[in-house]
Design brief:
7-stranded mixed beta sheet, Urease, subunit C, domain 1, 498 residues, 3 domains, Dna Ligase, domain 1, binds zinc ion, TIM Barrel
């Protein structure tokens, strides 16, 4: 039997101590996580060890006996790891609805970086102060978004190249954000506002970021047929602006580039050998969920040739599953190919009809599993969710338990130690977080205790909010936000500044 000694009264008094800083640390309560197996986040092999925490810090690791009056978490049979660090998270607005960040901490996330894909809060300083006032369930760090500053400077007139004066103004906003604590510049060059930017514009802005030792993190210009050009562009930006590059949710999203992950690996390893610090993250899903019309980017939804190209790019109508369709409820749960066969039509005909009748929600295959596996097996690829509070894709609630349950335990793609490294010390280092991402004496007590035999995701494309199981305890700055699998309601996260 597991013995969980956790009293809310004690937990909330500890919160007060932690929140108001270390000056009152003499009131801090000592906590021992005992009987567990420690995976310290560095990639080192697991070992039997107890972990002592005082206030918001880890103080000791080893074979330890409980002190008199010390609180104890019995972790017998469980793994004890650093809290997970999510470098790509869209919770910036979701925090207003749920400051406890339930869907995030139940996965074991203790620090998340907001502002990816070119879209961020601005000013960053004001946002981080808001986070502090809200008191959040996770620690937060922020990127400044390229599209955000681009729109701030160019207004609605962003569908063109920027002038040198405008680029200077954008650079000033970025430098201000960096001084206020942003960790780097994010871009989303595939999206409406970022896409008209030239590579030279982004290089100039990345150079402004580099002055403050920030990184450049990009949703690259194309994740489909032109993905290789897009990766080369990201590498060029890093090389010319002289800063580290993070490729967001690395992907090969169309038939034309499927099964080419080994070639991407070669491209990126060549850049790494030449001295460029380039890394990537990858989410553990092979499908996206959106409205049917995104399949035809030209928006020519009644043009059979354009529709055919859109369906061919995802491998045909059998890869497009209708999940919601108000005009035809009986279509739900069927693929375009199923519907075409039943009606004696083509998938193109069915697409055109559905759009005419008001559209549909679809889930669509974006990647082949062998490519995801290849990426996950590279030491320079980390785990990130691209999710966040309220995300209507299963990655929002399932990413980290999914990697541990499916990729590690069931499919044996990588070791548990390596998976934990990809969730902790590696992203923490990328974000220049000090004293987080590993279990070490003197470091911050962001800790996850999970059951390696049970941890798994349950969220699906049709039920994206289903919560994972197997994550037992989550401590953020020494305070339990999850205890015995349940939310405590504590909000002990802090805003982190670069
Ligand atoms: Zn993205």
């Amino acid at each position: 039997m597991k013995k969980i000694v956790w009293l809310c009264v004690f937990a909330s008094s500890l919160t007060v101590v932690t929140w108001h800083g270390s000056a009152q640390n003499k009131q801090a309560i000592s906590l021992l996580i005992t009987g567990g197996t420690v995976i310290d986040g560095t990639g080192a092999p697991r070992r039997r060890a107890d972990v002592r925490i005082l206030g918001d810090k880890i103080t000791q690791l080893g074979r330890l006996q409980p002190l008199r009056g010390e609180r104890v978490i019995d972790a017998t049979g469980l793994m004890v790891a650093p809290g997970f660090v999510d470098i790509h998270n869209h919770s910036e607005r979701g925090f207003a609805n749920d400051p406890t960040a339930r869907s995030q901490v139940l996965q074991g996330i203790t620090t998340l970086a907001v502002g990816p894909d070119g879209g961020s809060p601005l000013p960053i300083g004001q946002y981080l102060e808001w986070c502090e006032k809200q008191r959040l369930g996770t620690n937060v760090i922020a990127f400044v978004g390229h599209a955000t500053v681009r729109q701030r400077v160019m207004g609605k007139d962003f569908k063109r190249t920027a002038t040198s004066v405008e680029i200077t103004q954008m650079a000033e906003l970025i430098e201000q954000a960096m001084r206020e604590g942003a960790v780097g510049l994010s871009s989303g060059l595939e999206y409406d506002i970022g896409n008209p930017a030239t590579t030279e514009e982004v290089i100039a802005l990345a150079a402004a970021t580099a002055k403050y030792r920030g990184i450049y993190m990009s949703h690259v210009r194309d994740e489909a047929d032109l993905a290789f050009d897009a990766f080369r562009e990201a590498i060029r930006i890093g090389r010319e602006a002289k800063l580290p590059v993070q490729i967001s949710h690395i992907k090969l999203g169309t038939v034309g580039v499927w099964n080419k992950a080994r070639e991407v690996v070669k491209l990126i390893e060549a850049a790494r050998r030449s001295g460029l610090d380039v890394t990537a993250d990858c989410y553990p899903y092979d499908a996206w969920s959106s409205t049917i019309t995104v399949l035809v980017p030209s928006r020519k939804h009644d043009d059979p040739a354009a529709v055919k190209k859109g369906l061919d790019d995802v491998g045909g109508g059998q890869n497009v599953l209708v999940t919601s369709c108000s005009a035809h409820r009986d279509y739900e749960g069927k693929t375009l190919e199923d519907l075409a066969k039943a009606q004696g039509k083509t998938a193109v005909d069915v697409y055109i009809q559905i759009v005419k009748d008001g559209g549909a929600g679809v889930v669509c295959k974006s990647m082949v599993e062998t490519d995801i596996k290849t990426f996950y097996q590279q030491p320079w690829v980390m785990v990130a969710s691209d999710g966040g509070i309220g995300m209507r894709h299963p990655r929002g609630a399932g990413t980290f338990p999914r990697v541990l349950g499916r990729y590690v335990r069931e499919w044996k793609w990588l070791s548990l130690e390596e998976a934990i490294r990809k969730m902790t010390s590696f992203p923490a280092k990328r974000l220049s977080l000090s004293e987080r991402g590993a279990l070490k004496p003197g470091w911050k007590a962001d800790v996850v205790v999970f059951d390696p035999n049970a941890v798994v995701d349950h969220s699906t494309m049709t039920q994206p909010a289903l919560e994972p199981t197997g994550v037992k305890h989550v401590l953020v700055n020494g305070v339990a936000v999850v205890a015995d699998g349940q939310m405590t309601g504590e909000r002990s996260g802090v805003a982190l500044r670069h």
